[in-house]
Amino acid sequence: MQAITAKKALIFVITVFFMSFMVGCSGMERRPAYRSGYLYYPTELVNADRALDEARLAGKDRECSAEFNAAKEMVDKAYEVYMACHTKEAIAMAQAAIVKIKALCPAIPVTAAAPVPEAERQVIAYEDIHFDFNQSTLTPEAQTILKRNVQVLKDNPNTKVRIAGYASASGTEEYNQRLSETRAKVVQEFLISEGITQDRVFIIGYGETRPAMQETVSQDIYSKEAKANMRVLFEIVEQ
């Protein structure tokens, strides 16, 4: 009879113990494998460890190591405080650590600047010059015009220009492209010979594209449209 009573008492004690254990584990989670000490800790502490793990996976332990290590020390300290039976302080410390971890390595705010559109090509006050058919030699008239353009450049020493060469539609596209580039090069060399530094004068050839006038009959090399397209223009690139 006494043995039965003792057995019942033992069962009661075990039941009470496990009930107390279950109640005590409400708001508790199993500790991470790398943590020692108790098997269960307050959820806030475990969440702080999760936040650390996520930050580590994101590379923040390398990107801002000093701040990461400081946050980790705060989490470790929270566990120590909890082990010293200061639960509220430990939870508060873990919550503060989570906030700090989530703020690690903040992205540098970039103020979006208004996109700068490519400078529109514009013909400025310089006079354009024309060439004879299939020629890149400067005529006396062209040289006179270029000397006036040289003076404009000298009067505006901060201005840089692009010399754009063109060709009429007669001939192959490849040939006209080369011809337009040669015409631009000839003008550039003339300007340099007149005292304009090379870093202020750039060249480009457009071939038969971007005609001043559309040529209805490309074989008619004497048409006003063809003559209008055998030219070189000055374009502003910087003022």
Primary descriptors:
239 residues, alpha+beta, 60s Ribosomal Protein L30, Chain: A, 2 domains, 4-stranded mixed beta sheet, two-stranded antiparallel sheet, 6 strands
What would you say this structure looks like, in words?
This protein has a 4-stranded mixed sheet. Strands 1-2 form a two-stranded antiparallel sheet. With 239 residues, the protein is of the alpha+beta class. Mean pLDDT is 80; it is low at 15-26 and 108-124. It contains 8 helices and 6 strands; from the N terminus they run H-E-E-H-H-H-H-E-H-E-H-E-H-E. The protein folds into 2 domains: 2-102, no CATH class; 129-238, 60s Ribosomal Protein L30, Chain: A (2-Layer Sandwich). Helices cover 50% and strands 11% of the residues.
Write a brief caption for the model.
The chain is of the alpha+beta class and 239 residues long. It has helices at 2-24, 43-57, 60-63, 65-83, 87-102, 140-155, 173-193, 224-229, and strands at residues 28-30, 40-42, 129-130, 160-165, 201-205, 231-238. The strands form two sheets. A four-stranded mixed β-sheet has the order 3-6-4-5.
Helix and strand layout, with pairings?
Layout: H1 2-24, E1 28-30, E2 40-42, H2 43-57, H3 60-63, H4 65-83, H5 87-102, E3 129-130, H6 140-155, E4 160-165, H7 173-193, E5 201-205, H8 224-229, E6 231-238
Parallel strand pairs: 4-5
Antiparallel strand pairs: 1-2, 3-6, 4-6
Helix pairs in contact: 2-4, 2-5, 4-5
